[in-house]
Amino acid sequence: MSPEAVVHIGRQAIETVLLTSAPMLIAALVIGLIISIFQAATQINEQTMTFIPKIVAVFVTLLIFGPWMMELLVTFTTGIITQIATVGK
Fold first, then answer.
1. Which among 80, 60, 67 is positioned nearest to 15, based on CA atoms?
2. CA 33 to CA 17: how far, in whole Å?
3. Is 3 helix (H, G, I), strand (E, B) or coil?
4. How far, in Å, CA of 13 to CA of 24, rounded?
5. In a domain, 11, yes or no
6. In 10-55, where do the E strands start and end?
7. CA distance 51 to 19
């Protein structure tokens, strides 16, 4: 396997990880910002108030984007397996 192929596979892996984690991270970020603005406006500083909405948002995002993420991961895995099979010949 050439060094270019290894770099290409590594780049694809990083892109896949970023694409699959982005929806959940963005949802957690948005909910976190909304909760912090609410806490700053009301001066309620309870630490547990941030965790439950973030967890719910991440699970809802996972339910919504789950099929797309699974398709992306299956496509990546299939591509890697076919590349291994063609290199082995």
1. 80
2. 24
3. helix
4. 18
5. no
6. none
7. 23
80 lies in some domain? no
d(CA 70, CA 63): 11
pLDDT in tens, the chain (89 residues): 778 888 988 999 999 999 999 999 999 999 999 998 998 898 887 777 888 999 999 999 999 999 999 999 999 999 999 988 887 56
Instruction: Answer yes or no: is 51 within a domain.
Output: yes
Q: Which domain holds residue 31?
A: 23-67
Do the domain assignments include residue 4?
Answer: no
Quickly count: other Cβ atoms within 10 Å of residue 84's Cβ.
11
Lookup: tokens for 7:
């770099």
